[in-house]
Amino acid sequence: MPYHGFRCLLFLLLLTGACHTRADHESTASLEFGGRVKLDAIYNDAAVNSERRSKADLALSPASIPVFGERDAAFEVNLRESRLWGALKLPLFEQQLAAYAEIDLFDTRRDNQGRSRLTNVPRLRHAYARYGNLTLGKTYTTFLNLSAFPEINDANGPAGVLIVRQPLIRYQHDFDWGNLQFSVEDPQSTLTRTDGKRFKPDDESAPDLIAKVTYESAPGNLSLATMLRRIETERPGSGTDDDRWGGAISLSGRWQTFGRDNIRFAVSYGNALGRYLSYNVFNDGAIDAAGDTELTGVSGGYLAYQHWWTAALRSNVTAGFAHADQPENIIPAGTTQEITTASVNLLWSPMLNLTLGVEWIYGHRQLVNNHDGELNRLQFSTVYTF
Amino acid sequence: MRCSLSIKIILFIISGLLPVNISIAGESSVLQSSEPRAVLRVIHSERLRQIMQRLDSLAYEREHTALDLQYQRERQVRRLITATRELVEKSEQLPALVDDTNISPEDLTIFRAMAAQLYQKTRDLEQSLHRGHKVSVREGYQNLRETCNACHRLFRQDGGGR
Asked: Which of B27, B56, B65 is facing A85, going by the closest CB pair?
């Protein structure tokens, strides 16, 4: 399988070089390829576990910050956040049909203890088409305001971030003042069992419903998103269904302050937010011994400030948190209850398509029983886009 | 009370040393220097500056897909068109709004021509974006920047910049 992945990547690289950008017919079709090479050198003062090349050692996953046991430092160099994309644009009935696909090298496999381990198999990040006001396929959830995402080296982002890619059908209507978006998205519930293990039922019968309004003006934008989800499971033994409706709300934005400096933020709350927040650090709910589901109230957010020292040199300071009101009568005391992160970086772009930078990240995890652990990470990254 | 009077006197003295800021409308303003040279005058659009900065920042976005970036650029360029059109209209109203003793007719003609050129370059960039030509988008953006900078060099005290 890894061999197949390499062949696939090699083919795409050759295609990128060969096609170098397009079949050029202005009013007909166009085919474009591009991507980026990202080299990360990462030092963790507390590796997530003894398994080498765990994904959590490369992209900060606060749920994996070690709380007990020895703290083993680890150093990793990898290219797994490199990406390749292709875009096809076709005129169709006086509008444009655009199709887009993107891969990276962050595919994971899980071992028998549920820990994710990296492979070299390409992973599909996006595969979607857009026609007029409609978007269909796998891409970023509508619940997210991507322009509010901070510029950081870490692949995962701060605690409290909403960044999920999943299959969806989205309708967008643009106005002078911004836009409205409505979408139906792939429902996938994650629940905590009484033994603390994650359980992913396959009983969803209703899509996740999301609506978002975005106000845009010259200095920035503000988004308000709401989500409605139906979390369904089948009770073991009896075979009867248990379903709960839950919701979430998120306010996010980005605003210019002085010169090119800007502030970016997101704050979210809900009892069906679990899977969407901080890479599923908390589950959507917990199942008790009788098989009944209790949804988990989750809140989170981050604040980031970008300051430009010169035309090519800038820093980003970011702080984030996420907290879950875990049902202590159901879940084990070793379950994660709160995470916080902070980071600061210095990034330099000597050319428009080349960025070098160093970043310090701090992560903290607290369990329901108040035990906690922390992690310091130093990450040097080089990103070359083409 | 005495303290307040002193502050007023200090502010009055400082204000005499600074260029006068005359607002035309909304987010645009005319800066008129006490210096006799016309190059120290400028119509300044805060909105134009913010849109250009947002366009600049799109080059550094890491997580957007290429299609998203194209959409964002098109949105910002449409805003830029509106802002430059307003700039052209305001340059037409300039003599009526400002005491023109410090503005030579030649400078006014040059400024109007440059504002019109900026508007045209913005429309050109919109066309390039619509066609999706990577190279012509880059060239269109470069042309737009050069037009901005040429005007800044002539009419801004700091000689331009970003």
From this structure: B65
